[in-house]
Amino acid sequence: MTQVVGILGGMGPAAGADFVRLFVDACAQHMRAAGEPVRDQSFPEHWLAQVPVPDRSGALERTGEGAHQPLEPMLQALGRLAALGSRAVAIACNTAHAWHATLQQRFPQIELLHVAREVAAHLSARGETQVALMATEGTYRVRLYEQALADSGLPCHLPTAEERRMLMRGIYEGVKAGDLPLAEALFSEVALRLSQRHGDVAIVMGCTEVPLGLQGAAAVHGLKLVDPARVLASALAERAYARA
Amino acid sequence: MTQVVGILGGMGPAAGADFVRLFVDACAQHMRAAGEPVRDQSFPEHWLAQVPVPDRSGALERTGEGAHQPLEPMLQALGRLAALGSRAVAIACNTAHAWHATLQQRFPQIELLHVAREVAAHLSARGETQVALMATEGTYRVRLYEQALADSGLPCHLPTAEERRMLMRGIYEGVKAGDLPLAEALFSEVALRLSQRHGDVAIVMGCTEVPLGLQGAAAVHGLKLVDPARVLASALAERAYARA
After folding, report:
1. Are B104 and B81 contained in the same domain?
2. Which of A81, A210, B29, B115 has its CA 20 to 30 A from that of B132?
3. From the candidates A47, A53, A72, which should be mutated to test the interface with B, based on the most B CB atoms within 10 A?
């Protein structure tokens, strides 16, 4: 017997669609690891909500009412995922986790997974001791990963101000604007510098655009790149297969 | 203002996840065609239900109660998609369309898209005059595409009995079992034969496994292969952007 789970997406919709793919992959892996055949009927029931949510990074730069704009549509969608029977829900957006505590508080009957805590637990279990973070300015601002990693006793190395600008350029002028070679060059350079500075370091790609820009990049071959969406999708699959 | 739409998936879950990707692509294309910027917030709200549904092909071979097993979970999921506000719903499985009429009848307030009718309309609008169908035995049995194409005045050329066996082998021993080279060889051979027999023919890949097996196959380069999932995803995007 599996549990119904939900995915809160739309931030952006392509990342939400890709998260479902990763979740389905993780479920198939779970079945194979348990020695069970992978059949359509053995997958847990899951629902994806792709709802329009005002820009998360923009809201985090504002104060007053504007700062809370993304909360309302997320609360509504989460309430509906809960009503559909979801026992656990994952949010398919790093930056949206800035509102995690408020969302979880409002719906105590569901477990709202936290991407950074799942990544910290995953790295801790793997025995990593050094972690570096590639992310957006918004994610650095709310210290999403720093806090979760610190709670697991893991240091979080940050890029320099110049490297952060390179990341933002790779995300906005690279991936989002469709210039993948530019993104790959910028992301690779930052990843290599982090690895040179911190040695055997696990590098967290804490923005969904980063893995897209680094896909198949030869320059970063051998680096320990961690995709939080993949870790979060596995964590959600675990919840789905947990006994009630 | 966009309309809320739904996707009835889980048949199988990987095809459902891929359908969301195609729908998101189709929406982005719609925005670009309209000269609008592609922003997260400009996508229509959409919901994906991935529910366990008993084997569709198996049910179509049975009579009595067994023949209706897949209907109940599809009705339940469709009712919930309707309750979430969906005005139009697409089913991410060819064979499940055997129950289309019953599902549509039960929920007259939503438009339940029909993959074969959308493909027929698409091919008709493109000015095609010859169509061939690569599908599963179950899809041939219920004449899913033949009927819809005939209603649009289009002939539907079918593979020979031997070619159908090649398709079933490519689907089950090839794609589903992870032997992609076998699938590519079998699917390519059937596609080439259809093209040799019927000349300038549009070949409908009426089973979600077929495009997976033919991805990047050089042998079929230049053939007019039609992916119904892509056509259905575009049709759903059209409904989402239609004025209320």
Report:
1. yes
2. B29
3. A47
Give one DSSP letter per residue of A33-44, joined into a string.
HTT----GGGSP
CA B103 to chain CA mean position, Å: 16
End-to-end CA distance of chain A: 8
Peptide bond into A138 cis (omega under 30): no
Taking 70 as the threshold, does the pLDDT of residue A244 lie above it?
no
DSSP helix/strand/coil, A23: helix
Count of structural domains, chain B: 2
CB contact B1 to A (< 8 Å): no
CATH of the domain at A156: 3.40.50.1860
Q: Which residues are within 8 A (CB) of A32 and not within 5 positions of it... i.e. 6 or more apart?
A: A38
Q: What is the domain range of residue B87?
A: 5-114+231-241
- Name the residue of chain A whose CA is nearest to B52's CA: A41
Percentage of residues in chain A with pLDDT exceeding 90? 79
3-state secondary structure of B224: strand
Q: CA A153, CA B124: separation in Å to the nearest integer?
A: 63
Same domain, B101 and B160: no
Q: Are residues B81 and B99 in the same domain?
A: yes
pLDDT of residue B244: 56
Same domain, B28 and B103: yes
- The helix or strand, by DSSP H or E, that contains position A81, with its residue range, turns out to be helix A71-83
Contacts of A57 in chain B (CB under 8 A): none
Q: What residues in B contact A40, CB-CB < 8 Å?
A: 10-13, 52-53, 55
Q: Do A45 and B24 touch (CB under 8 A)?
A: no
The whole-angstrom separation of Cα B74 and Cα B96 is: 9
Tell me which residues of chain B have a pLDDT lower than 50. Answer: none
Same domain, A211 and A191: yes
State the nearest Cα–Cα gap between A9 and chain B, in angstroms.
10
Question: How many C-beta atoms lie closer than 10 Å to residue B124's C-beta?
Answer: 16
Q: Tokens for A121, please give them.
A: 């637990």
Listed in order, strand segments (DSSP E) in B52-185 are 88-91, 111-112, 131-134, 156-157
Locate the chain B residue with the closest alpha carbon to A40: B12
Q: Please check whether residues A236 and A212 belong to one and the same domain.
A: no
Same domain, A32 and A126: no
* B36 and B91 part of one domain: yes
Instruction: Give whichever of A40-44, A56-60, B57-61 has the largest mean pLDDT.
Output: A40-44
Cα torsion at B128, B133, B139, B145 (round to 10°)? 10
CA distances from A216 to A34, A175, A219, B140, B224 (A): 30, 14, 9, 40, 30
